[in-house]
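*** Residues and shapes ***
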Amino acid sequence: MPTLTVKKLGVVGEPLAQIDMSGPVRWDPDAASLSMGVDSFGVLNREVVLAVPGELGLAKIVNGRRYAASVDLDNSGVTSLAGLSANFSRASATDPAQAFGTHSR
């Protein structure tokens, strides 16, 4: 069997400006930040803290429940929440009152 050796890896295309993630959250309205336990296949990989712009007007966020988030990235690696929606149940996922920012469109 032939051996494959990678000599160079590169990125093609424009850098990402936004990523999507999901996981259980912890909302801190005093700090205007949302902590998300980002997971893959139910295994906790990392907790990410996201700045939350005031215009999102997050309300009725249930700590410990799963949400889907769209996150803006800037060139320095700073993350801020662009959109958030509940996805812990079928009813919550279709409830427009539980969708904020880009997820409410």
Notes: Helices lie at 90-93. The chain has one domain: 18-104. The first helix runs from residue 90 to 93. Strands lie at 18-28, 33-40, 43-51, 66-73, 79-86, 99-101.
